[in-house]
Amino acid sequence: MATSTQVQRIAAFSDGDSGGNPAGVLISERLPDAAEMQRIAADIGFSETAFAAPQDGDWRVRYFSPESEVPFCGHATIALGAALAMQEGDGIFPLALNNARITVEGHRDGDRFSAALQSPPTRTSVMPAPLVDAILDLFGYTVDDLDPRFPVFRIHAGADHLALVLKSREKLAAMHYDLAAGRALMNLAGLVTVVIAWPETDQRFHTRNPFASGGVYEDPATGAGTAAFAAYLRDIGWPHGGAIDVVQGEDMGSRSLLHAEIPAEPGSSIRVSGSARLM
């Protein structure tokens, strides 16, 4: 039986030797059963733990937060890329998720690691006004706090998120909400997280990422949300120039850096990359 002591602890999207989002990674010959994976994820206590096992030439991967399974997690995939590079050597590794097939690329340079994932297919849609109002009320924002250049959309890159883009960095820093109320609302709306962003420039965004659906107040780095947000910028015609940089986690004291490459084709995968460090 697998135990939490076998889990590697890796911070994904780190800023050099600091920051990043901690993830658990357990690579084994066979995946534990779902109840055991859920127990281990809860014991680890990170926002997500990735479980991987070889299967028919791929790596079968499942992701668990402390409270539930999630269909895709970007930062845990980056952590898995680092762990696979450490175990298998540098390479591109095919991953079979619950609902998609993707890849993660992992590289090792001494004690430093980098990784890049290709997200599942992307899509976006307008959110109904009553749900937008409820989300704004949850965070204490009003319509006047939103940047009018960015419509409020449901965004998807393997999981559903909501995009809220604010006018000011100060409003982003002031983000707060009640965790229990957030969990209930996000679960009702079918949202894994909310991506709250502020545009420093056309290609550089600061974000925060409440993850109440998984029982986590906020994530310091969110690859899945960044992939979905990048696709959203493409869909609304934002002048992204083919790529964006995202700074996340500053307001938590865990500065994280993410880079997303945005191809022109609607619905296509987003490449999200960053560094990773062993904890």
What does it look like?
The chain is about 25% helix and about 40% strand. It contains six helices and 17 strands. The chain has helices at about 35-45, 75-90, 130-140, 170-175, 180-190, 225-235; strands at about 10-15, 20-25, 50-55, 60-65, 70, 90-95, 100-110, 110-120, 120-125, 155, 160-165, 195-200, 205-210, 215-220, 245-250, 255-260, 270-279. The chain has an eight-stranded mixed β-barrel. Helix 2 packs across helix 6 and helix 3 runs antiparallel to helix 5. The longest helix is centred in the N-terminal third of the chain and has 15 residues, at about 75-90. The protein is globular.
Structural descriptors:
Diaminopimelate Epimerase, Chain A, domain 1; eight-stranded mixed beta barrel; 279 residues; 6 helices; 39% strand; globular; alpha+beta; 2 domains
Strand order of the largest sheet: 1-2-3-4-6-7-8-17
- Kindly state the mean pLDDT as a whole number? 96
When the domains are counted, the total is 2
| N- and C-termini, Cα separation | 24 Å
- Taking pLDDT < 50 over at least 5 consecutive residues as the criterion, the unreliable ranges are none
Supply the CATH architecture of the largest domain: Roll
Structural class: alpha+beta
**The CATH H-level homologous superfamily of the largest domain:** Diaminopimelate Epimerase, Chain A, domain 1
Shape label: globular
Largest sheet, if any? 8 strands, mixed, barrel
- Number of helical regions: 6
CATH class category of the largest domain: Alpha Beta
**Approximate helicity band:** 10-25%
CATH topology call of the largest domain: Diaminopimelate Epimerase, Chain A, domain 1
> Approximately what portion of the residues adopt beta-strand conformation?
35-45%
* Tally of strands: 17
Run of helices and strands:
EEHEEEHEEEEHEEHHEEEHEEE
Gyration radius, in Å: 17 Å
